[in-house]
Amino acid sequence: MALQGPFAVIADSPAPDVLDALRAAGASAIIEATWSGAPKALAAVEPEAIILADACPDQARATALADLLGEQRQSGSGLFMPVIARSRDDGAPAIPDTFAIAANAPPQRLVRRLSSALRIRTLHGTVLRRMRTLASRGEQLPELSAADPLDEATVLVAGRGRSYPELSVACGERVGVVGALSVESAARALNIRDIDGVVIGDGFAPKIVEALLTVLAEDPRFRDLPVAVLGGHPATVEPFATELANLERIAEGPQRLVERFLPYVRAYAFGQRLKRMLKSLDAKGMLDPDTGLLAHDAFWRDLNRAVGDAEKRGAGLSIARFCFDGNDRRLSLDAARLVGRLMRQVDFACREADNSIFAVFTETDLRAAHVVARRIASVLKNTMLAPDSRTGGVDAAVTLATLKPTDSIDSLIARVVGEAAG
User: Fold this and answer.
1) Where are the alpha helices (DSSP H) in 343-400?
2) From first to last of its 422 residues, what are the pLDDT tens digits of the chain?
3) Would you call 130 exposed, middle or buried from its count of C-beta atoms within 10 A (0-12, 13-18, 19+)?
4) What burial class does residue 2 get, using C-beta atoms within 10 Å of its C-beta: 0-12 exposed, 13-18 middle, 19+ buried?
5) Quick check: 281 and 141 in contact, CB under 8 A?
6) Cis before 6? omega within 30
7) How far apart are CA 319 and CA 197, in angstroms?
8) How many CB atoms lie under 10 A from the CB of residue 191?
9) Are 33 and 8 in contact (CB under 8 A)?
10) Residue 199 · residue 220 · CB < 8 Å
11) Model confidence, pTM
12) 317 near 169, Cβ under 8 Å?
C-alpha cells in the first residue's frame, strides 16, 4: 500500500537510503530540508509524518523545531503526527516524544515503523470525522479523553535477571506494570490483559527470548505492539523485526530503555483509546470509550430491561459490585477493562463515578453469581498490582445481591450498595 504524503525528511547530510526506501514504498510528496531550514519548510505545510534522518547538530535548532511542531498541533488539524528519529546510540532523540530508531537499522524497517504510526494517524482522522458528522446531526457524543495516554497504559515486563527489579520500578513510575517471570505467564497476561508494550529484560536464555518473540510475532493483534529487548540477543531479535514493526533492542540499561520506549507506548495506548472511541461512536454512545463497558445511562436502561424480563419469566438475575481502596483512576480503568474481558456474553457492566464497577449476571442465581464474582476477583488480585506496590495484588471488595420477587431496581441496588457500606 502506497504511503500518501507529504512526508518531511530532515537531515544536514544526504540520506539517500531513507529517500529510496520511502519511494520504493510508494511515498509521494517528499519534502527534504536541513535542520536550519526545517522550520521554514514546515511552516507552510503539515506533513503526514517527519523523519529526522540524522542527529541534530545544535540543540537550539532542535528546540525551534519542537516548538514549531507544538504550535502546528495546536493550530493545525490536531491529528496525531509521528516523528521518527534515527539515533546512532541509545540516547534520547533531540526532540522529546519522537520515535527513536537505530541509525544502522535497515531503511525498510524505518518504513514499516512509519506505516505502523500512520495507522494511528488514520484512525485518529476517522474518529474526528465521525465525531464532526455526528455532532452536525445534533447527536450527543462521548468525549475523547485529552489525558496523557501513559496515565492509563500498561506494560508487560518479562525477565528474571538482575535488571528486572530496576526495569519494573522504572516502568512503574510512568505506566502500569504487569510482571512475568516466564514465557507462560507472559503469554497468559497478553491473552487476558490490555497490554500497551512489552519489555524483555535479562535473565532469559536466547531460546526463551525467541519463544516469547514468536508468541508476539505469530499473533496479528501484536503486529504494532511496542517491544523492547534489553541488552544482548541481537541474533535472536533481528529475525523478528519483519513481523514486529516496533521491535527495538536497547543495550544501555533500564533507564535508557524506558526513556526510548515510552513514546511508542504512549502512541500505542492512544491508538487503543481511538479504537474504543470508534466502537463507542458505532454504538451511538452506549459504550464508555474509557473502559469498553456500557456507558452509565445505557447500563441503567439495560438493567431496567433485564429486571423486567427476569420478573416476567421468573429467571434469575444477580448483581455484583467491585470496590477498590483509594481513588486511583488507572487502577479503576484497568480493572474495568479486565472485568469486561472476563464477563460472559450475556452479562453487562459499567464503571461508576466513584470508580466502583457494577456487573449484572443474567440468568444467574446467587450461588452461581458467587462463583463468577470470585473468579473475577481472583484474576484481578493475581494479575494487577496495587498502586505504589511491586508485589501486592489488588483486593477488590465484592458484594452481591440477587433479584427477589418483591424487589425493585432501587431495592436491589440499595442492598448491594448497603452491604458494601456495611
Assistant:
1) 366-383
2) 568 879 999 998 888 999 999 999 888 889 999 988 888 888 878 899 999 998 877 788 888 888 888 777 766 668 899 999 998 765 666 687 899 998 888 999 999 999 999 999 999 999 999 999 998 988 888 888 889 999 989 999 998 888 888 899 999 889 988 888 888 889 888 988 899 999 998 888 889 999 999 999 999 999 999 999 988 667 788 899 989 999 998 887 888 888 899 999 999 999 999 999 999 999 988 999 999 999 999 999 999 999 999 999 988 999 999 998 766 788 888 889 999 999 888 899 999 988 899 999 999 999 999 999 999 998 888 777 655 554 456 778 899 999 999 888 999 999 998 765 44
3) middle
4) exposed
5) yes
6) yes
7) 34
8) 12
9) yes
10) no
11) 0.91
12) no
**What order of strands is seen across the sheet that includes strand 7-10?**
30-33, 7-10, 49-52, 83-87, 99-102
C-alpha cell at 153: 497504559
What are the residues whose beta carbons fall under 8 Å from the beta carbon of 116, sequence distance 6 or more?
A: 223, 224, 245, 246
Residue 212: burial class (beta carbons within 10 Å; 0-12, 13-18, 19+):
buried
Cell numbers 523523519: residue: 51
Record the cell numbers describing residue 421, joined without a space: 457500606
Helix (H) or strand (E) holding 350: strand 348-351
- Strand, coil or helix: 63: helix
Q: Please tell me the distance from the alpha carbon of residue 62 to that of residue 6, in angstroms, as a whole number.
A: 21
Instruction: State how far the alpha carbon of 127 is from the alpha carbons of 121, 244, 270, 346, in Å.
Output: 10, 25, 12, 28
Q: Assess contact for 332 and 380: CB atoms under 8 A.
A: no
Count, residues in the chain: 422
Cα 6 to the center of its chain, rounded Å: 27
